[in-house]
Write a structure and sequence with these properties.
Length: 216
């Protein structure tokens, strides 16, 4: 091999080395310029979404002014009127009512019936008084309420009314009158009927509660 050929081969070797070195530098820079890998997403559960606030639950307490607690005084007056007097109905009302008013003293009106005389007798019982209202001839029989089937007191019936929509009704309407009545029919037995009526008389909330306590 001549001297000229050796020089050419040596020069080509240098070129190859330079090219390889340049490629190595470029690859190294490219590796450093890569963006960092994305962090893995958390594997734990996502935060629970807030649950809506639960509806209000009403629990009126028993007071001395409930229907059952005032009934004994009414029954005593009715027995003095006629020995066979039997309870036919009990009723009360709260005008412009707020929830707390249901636990305040209120008047209860009790109606009795004497099958022997075919007369009805109505008596009003307030916090400290018993007042006869009227005595009326009623020629047809009145369905009497057996005391043993009357298990649900008025405050419990009002709780049912409030929790079944009455409480929300009071919040929707600024002025509401509420009335409650215990009566018996041959088909239903003794039933509480609770009615809330707004001031304009355009909206009402009515619930029926089995006085024997056998219905939810």
């Amino acid at each position: 091999m001549s001297k000229t050929q050796l020089v050419i081969l040596w020069g080509m070797g240098i070129v190859v080395v330079v090219v390889l070195a340049t490629l190595g530098i470029l690859v190294s820079r490219a590796g450093r310029s890569q963006p960092p890998a994305a962090l893995p997403s958390p594997t734990g559960p996502s935060p629970a979404s807030p649950t809506p606030a639960q509806a209000d639950t009403y629990r009126l307490p028993e007071t001395p002014y409930t229907a059952k607690n005032l009934y004994a005084r009414a029954q005593e007056a009715a027995s003095l009127w006629q020995p066979d007097a039997a309870l036919v109905s009990a009723a009360a009302s709260w005008p412009f009512v707020a929830v707390d008013d249901f636990s305040e003293p209120t008047d209860w009106t009790f109606q009795f019936y004497s099958a022997e005389t075919q007369h009805a007798y109505v008596v009003n019982v307030a916090e400290g008084t018993v007042t006869p209202i009227r005595e009326t001839l009623v020629p047809y029989s009145q369905p009497a309420i057996a005391v043993q089937e009357w298990q649900v007191d008025s405050y419990q019936a009002l709780n049912a009314w409030l929790n079944r929509g009455g409480g929300a009704f009071l919040k929707r309407h600024p002025v509401v009158d509420v009335s409650i009545r215990l009566a018996r029919t041959e088909d239903t037995g003794a039933v509480w009927t609770i009615v809330g009526l707004d001031q304009a008389g355009q909206a009402a909330q009515t619930e029926y509660v089995d006085a024997s306590g056998s219905l939810p």
